[in-house]
Amino acid sequence: MTLSSGERRGKAVRWGLVGLGKFAGEAIAPAMLASERADIVACATRDPQKARAFAEHFGVPHPYDTYEELVRDPDIDAVFVATPNAIRYRGRFVRVRPSAQSSCGPCWSTFVSRFR
Q1: Are the C-beta atoms of residues 82 and 27 closer than 8 Å to each other?
Q2: What is the pLDDT of residues 61-102, one digit of tens each?
Q3: Domain around 15
Q4: Looking at 17-21, 33-37, 40-44, 110-114, which range is the least confident one?
Q5: Domain count of the chain?
Q6: Once rounded to an integer, what is the mean pLDDT over residues 19-42?
Q7: Residue 71 is inside which H or E element, if any?
Q8: Is 115 among the domain residues?
Q9: What pLDDT is recorded for position 10?
């Protein structure tokens, strides 16, 4: 049996999920929900209605209208950025606060040469 995020709160890393497309919905969220060590506590995307639908579907307690709101949430331990590489590279994503960890998928390696 898979527990919703809310049913496991306090027992795992509390994740904020940014970018709620196919990769997040078919790979990341199901994997996090299947793990006892991950808890999706917040989500955000460019479309607030999509964030609310994603939150309802996966049992995420805090859908946010903006990425900035999500990263300001003090109850998030880490942020998984599942936006397309081009959006991250162009600087459209906000800076994660220093106390939160972040993970990006797919890999940033596409742009390594641009940062040398």
Answers
A1: no
A2: 999 998 889 988 989 888 888 887 655 544 444 455 555 544
A3: 5-107
A4: 110-114
A5: 1
A6: 93
A7: helix 67-72
A8: no
A9: 53
Query: CATH code at 35?
Result: 3.40.50.720
pLDDT at residue number 116: 38
Q: Would you say residue 116 lies in a domain?
A: no
Residue 30 lies in a domain: yes
Residue 33 to residue 70: CA distance in whole angstroms: 19
User: In the structure encoding, which two tokens stand for residue 79, read together?
Assistant: 């942020």
| Beta strand spans in the chain (E) | 13-18, 38-44, 62-64, 78-81, 101-104
In three-state secondary structure terms, 38 is: strand
Model confidence, pTM: 0.71
CA atoms within 13 A on the CB side of 89: 13
